[in-house]
Amino acid sequence: MQDNLSSFFEPQSVALIGASSNPSKLSYGILKNISQYGYRGGIYPINPKSNEILGFPCYSSILDVPEEVDLTVIILPAEIIPQVIDDCGKKGVKACIVISGGFKELGEDGKQREKELEISTRKYGIRIIGPNCVGNINVYSGLNTTFIKGMPVKGGIGFVSQSGAVCGGVVDHVVQEGIGFSHLISLGNEMDVNETDMISYLADDENTHVIACYVESIRDGARFMEVAKHVSKKKPIVLLKAGKSELGAKAVSSHTGSLAGSHTAYSTAFKQAGVIEVSSLRALLQTSMALDMQPLPQNKQAVIFTNAGGPAALLSDSLDEHGLKLANLNEKTQQMLKAKLNPAAQTMNPVDMLGGATQGEYAQAMRVVKENNDAGILLPVLVPQALVDPVAVARAIISETQNSQRTTIACMVGKQSTQEAKLLLHQQHIPLLDYPEDVGEVLGGMLRYKAYHDAPAETLEISRIAQKEEARSYFHGLADQKQFGEAETRPLLELYGVKNVEGKRADSLAEAQQAAKELGYPVVIKVISDEILHKSDAGGIRLDIKDERSLADAYQDMLTDVRSHAPEAVIKGVLVEKMQKQGEEVIVGMKWDANFGALLMFGMGGIYVEAFKDVSFRIAPVSEVDVRNMIAETAAGKILNGLRGIRYDIDAVVQTILALSQVCLDFPEIQELEINPLKVFSKGDGAAALDSRMIIK
Amino acid sequence: MQDNLSSFFEPQSVALIGASSNPSKLSYGILKNISQYGYRGGIYPINPKSNEILGFPCYSSILDVPEEVDLTVIILPAEIIPQVIDDCGKKGVKACIVISGGFKELGEDGKQREKELEISTRKYGIRIIGPNCVGNINVYSGLNTTFIKGMPVKGGIGFVSQSGAVCGGVVDHVVQEGIGFSHLISLGNEMDVNETDMISYLADDENTHVIACYVESIRDGARFMEVAKHVSKKKPIVLLKAGKSELGAKAVSSHTGSLAGSHTAYSTAFKQAGVIEVSSLRALLQTSMALDMQPLPQNKQAVIFTNAGGPAALLSDSLDEHGLKLANLNEKTQQMLKAKLNPAAQTMNPVDMLGGATQGEYAQAMRVVKENNDAGILLPVLVPQALVDPVAVARAIISETQNSQRTTIACMVGKQSTQEAKLLLHQQHIPLLDYPEDVGEVLGGMLRYKAYHDAPAETLEISRIAQKEEARSYFHGLADQKQFGEAETRPLLELYGVKNVEGKRADSLAEAQQAAKELGYPVVIKVISDEILHKSDAGGIRLDIKDERSLADAYQDMLTDVRSHAPEAVIKGVLVEKMQKQGEEVIVGMKWDANFGALLMFGMGGIYVEAFKDVSFRIAPVSEVDVRNMIAETAAGKILNGLRGIRYDIDAVVQTILALSQVCLDFPEIQELEINPLKVFSKGDGAAALDSRMIIK
């Protein structure tokens, strides 16, 4: 497939079908862009009404072109494109970029038209980018099939975008800033080639050091995760997801016509796949630039060199927010700094060299710190001052950080006085940010990536204790209904090794009393009814029943209560369970996500679930390390781990989550599965599912 | 005081003491700035070694100036400044800006020097800005006493900064962007004039519509709150606080030598005083610009007009994050839009007019929405496209929003193609942001301000039920120690109307049994010991004791337990209390903040306090509305309000917090006071303090 895709970016020749000689037409702009940035292959405008455009001989049809054509760029009314594709097929074209809109994004008619387009391309095995895109730019070969004004300089950022406009906006932002790119790829409707294909392609592209993505939806989440996990071990993927909120999702869906999944599943997937998710378009550019230009930080210790206290304070806040530290400069280092700097300078970190600090002082201070401290991150900060030349300071920063193996990000708080310094720094691969508050997110992203990159590969868990055959026959023997309560869910969980609270089903008071006798008092009773999913809200639970007589009272009382709360509910019986000793109640659940599959959840259980929303997520399959991290992320996890003095049996929770993961992978028919509460006992004493329920798709 | 301060900004004449004829000196730059931006008063450089500088006759001493001098700007070695101040005093100078550093910021010696400076200025009643500042700019009069390069255009932002460098950085950012200012004021060490004085001054300055502040610490928090509350009713204060995190606070404190308070107290104070706290320097500029240029939003409904879906999705995410909504466009409005726009355009909100959208389409779409929808906010978004002129679109936006009374913020995603449009929009008072993600924070700040501005003035509560005389004599009769447990804290709370759990003190088992008999079983017993503040951790509590015999067992058991946990603790007795019925446990507390005074806290109580940190804060004194909001902000408040089906007695919690507030205002000697837990019963049944403690300063 890779070879196939290379025709988009390294074609021997390209034809523009729908070329125009009218400079006010987009297709004129495209031909100009194809021809003006050094692309060396054949260029063939196709238009039956022109003889030549921009000096290139024009052909009536792709079939008339004397040479072979690898790539066509099509900008024509949507209706006639399937016919044109047919010609391309006959000509042996390998790849085709369809700029034109008028397809899926317009609704039903357009969808139909896109279907036809798909059929005609399949017939010839032609790969398609688009339709409804703005084209691609290969900065290294100079092939620019867009109508975007300007061309970024060469660099290592490969940019993949589900919005053509965002591509254009990015170019408009960076062309004067010297931020270098390898590719800019607009994907349009993703009829054929999608974001995952492009990530995979850029992973093998030697000019690309960082893959930057703007994404609105990912349709094949499982494949995305598989590819991204693999690619992230090799080079970083930085990603901005639009449509995170309900409002944003609405904006996306009216835009692309595709249903955006919940953001929880997306951000969980990104984290698990080592993808650096960023919060803004600005952070997407800044983080990608830093990853392209600089080595990964060797540690989270940073040193700030500044000529002003205020911006250093803002920068420190930003570092703190993203988990970075200020390195401790020891007495000796501080003495050496004092000797080189203004006597009034602050030699703690931030190193504040005061307003008059010269390029020489920046160089001296950075040198002293490099030689005496292991901090992985150097952060020179400058506020333009009357007597200091930002370009000279930029030169000092460049010479002190070259080959230093320290991650360097410069910050100059200004605009009119700092543009020349910025260009110079960017040319020398040192990122310059205009505002100190932006630095933390960039470094935080780099550190998260480094942690993923350096972590040993983990084995995804396949449960060894599941009795799969029995589970299969039990599951397929379930009644034909969508919702199942505890009585039906328990046996399935049990077959995967989940310990349920000891209990028995009873159809009468006598049976219940018999069951209680066998289990031993105190017991709990719960109503069994398909219509009642939240038993406690319907009065369908009685706790801590101490003897036979209390059981009789509780039994009658509960049934009366349930009948008044839910008169239409069919009561199938009661569960008699052993009353459990003291423990912490947690929730373990799974919700099927349309894009990514089984989304596992863990958190504080019981009555506080809704109030605190103390939950964390992972997408199955998971490794044991994943699950332990998932637990540790929550307050519930901290409580289990001894926050209140008692250490609970976290291992039992881990096993329960792994079991749930396996159930959901084995039975993708399950839409939701929840154990709430799972009662966790002291370390070594295990855990027991006190209640569970399940919804089938 | 106001009149006094006006000499800094509207002097009839200004002398620069320490003027230099050497263009590489800062003082040369200052004289140039004083003279080049249209200031019309007298200008007198003072330097015994020069005859004239920049065409101005030079004087040996301020005493030689033939005219009266209102303002002097001093840039001289720190040591000789007190002497110079003496001359200024003799000359009758009213105000003095001391640019020079070498004072408090250098440590002990400098502090001493600053003290001397203060004494000499007090003697003559001279007001001082600085020392260690970069001077001020009055954009309207043209008086610029800084050495900053460039001068912003005239506008309504009055900028006050505790960092001179931040002032310089801001100017460097805005001079080419047409963002208008009234004043830029660098405060330096705030020996005399501080941020609160300047807020108060700018509140009455007719050229200033918005007060923007960069702040590192506020020393007199109470006065700041009083002034800011008042000013915020008149014009908005936008504020960025540096040193929010521990790292940042360290950076600030090594910088200004002042101790930064905890950020919780700061952000609580800002919220209560109507101050719009922002998260970054960029947001400070953007929010101030929007407040200066645009009317406040009439509601939180926004309509997006865009030529690209991606940026509209990012913008929608940003709106959602800050509590804004996308207005619903009704069928009729959508029909009218369809008639005016490209048939493929999306007429839902965001209104996506597609890539080719012209200025005419922007104008038409905005007009239709203005005439058919009440949304208070209009958000035109443009991504530069090959065939669309950003300046023409800017003109359309200007003509459609003038006199519209809708808050308009434009967003153009780019840089190279959008600068001219930006300048034009800013000249016409429409803010243009480069990135869609920035819009939400700006509008969110405007809406928060509007809510404060429009809210009726509230009466701060003075408790009517406190028995102040009795409280005073009780409090002053307390033993001479720092920490007090429940036994000593209960009576004080009671005198302020707080209901404690019913209980009695006992010194022996027999007394305890007698007390329990009177209270009625079941009871709780708790140890009384000054050395034990966390009774449950020390084994000093026994719950739910049902009869006399159990009490005997529990009594012995508890004392044995306490003695093994805290062998050195002196046990003064036990408290016997009535066991309380079911209720929710919350925490109500107060911690004295060095800058702002009594910081009240409310949140989830009991064992989950530490795990969830579900707490909210207010600074005393508070209104009843403040307290109700404070409760509503937490998950605990939602639970009390019926989240789990039961509504609890919130009124009783409100009264308890008001009482606590009053105790702390009446006894500023109290460092900490905490009721944990306060057990809240069902609506109408009140609340009871189950435990309390107190620390005296």
Automatic annotation (TrEMBL), chains A, B:
InterPro entries: Acyl-CoA_Synth/Transferase, ATP-grasp, ATP_grasp_subdomain_1, CoA-bd, Ligase_CoA_dom, NAD(P)-bd_dom_sf, Succ_CoA_lig_flav_dom, Succinyl-CoA_synth-like. Pfam families: ATP-grasp_5, CoA_binding_2, Ligase_CoA_2, Succ_CoA_lig. It comes from the Bacteria. Keywords: ATP-binding, Ligase, Nucleotide-binding. One of its GO terms (molecular function) is acetate-CoA ligase (ADP-forming) activity. Residues 490-526 form the ATP-grasp domain. PANTHER family: 3-HYDROXYPROPIONATE--COA LIGASE [ADP-FORMING], ACETATE--COA LIGASE [ADP-FORMING]. In the N-terminal section; belongs to the acetate CoA ligase alpha subunit family. This is Putative acetyl-CoA synthetase. The lineage of its organism: Bacteria, Bacillati, Chloroflexota, Anaerolineae, Anaerolineales.
